[in-house]
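Protocol step 6 of 9: fold each sequence in the batch and record its structure tokens directly after the sequence line. For illustration, a two-sequence batch is reproduced in full.

Sequence one:
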Amino acid sequence: MWKQIVSILMDAIRLVTFTSDDKDNRRHRDC
């Protein structure tokens, strides 16, 4: 059971990091 929770948390972290990276890239492109 805890393995599923860990996998979900990892996926969420990946999504957050991807979104943050996208925002940074967009800012750089705008500049």
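Sequence two, same batch, same settings:
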Amino acid sequence: MTDDNKTDSTTKMARKDINQDGLDQKDQQRTDDSVLDMMQGMHEHEDHNEESDK
């Protein structure tokens, strides 16, 4: 008998543990989308004044 909810060696979580927020699959935000949003937000706050670099 195999364990369908085996702990993943990378995440240290079982497959069924990953969605602990109780949201439907369609309502969950993918991790790569979250990272992209974070990077874009950081970019907006950067100092883009190139004159000060000279």
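Proceed to step 7 once all outputs are recorded. Observation for sequence two: The mean pLDDT is 65.
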